[in-house]
Amino acid sequence: QVQFVESGGGLGQPGGSLRLSCVASGIMLRIYVVGWYRQAPGKQRELVAVDGGGGDTSYADSVEGRFTISRDNAKNTVYLQMNSLKPEDTGVYYCNRKPPTLPWGQGTQVTVSS
Fold first, then answer.
1. Contact 92, 38 (CB under 8 A)
2. Fewest CB atoms less than 10 Å from the CB: which of 3, 31, 82, 104?
3. Distance separating alpha carbons of residues 79 and 93, to the nearest angstrom
4. For 82-108, what is each residue's pLDDT tens digit?
């Protein structure tokens, strides 16, 4: 049974940082292209960062230069380092394959506010 467990969210200050983690079970992440997705209040879920493996990463324009996706295959874990936070980064963050064909986890809430 595939399961993603996201953590690390919380209340962040504008200009601050948060680091999200996503532990996967039931699959071997190293064979997949993985992504972090964000669902802002009242909006559809969107893809914000992708890790294709071997250092191949890509980002949505809205987070380029501020967010960094990485993975630890030995821990079956994907990370999202979020720097220079903005209020528009607020939302629930999820990880999944790209495309997101696996069951969603519960996500982790990120709120950016002063």
1. yes
2. 31
3. 11
4. 999 999 999 999 999 999 999 999 999
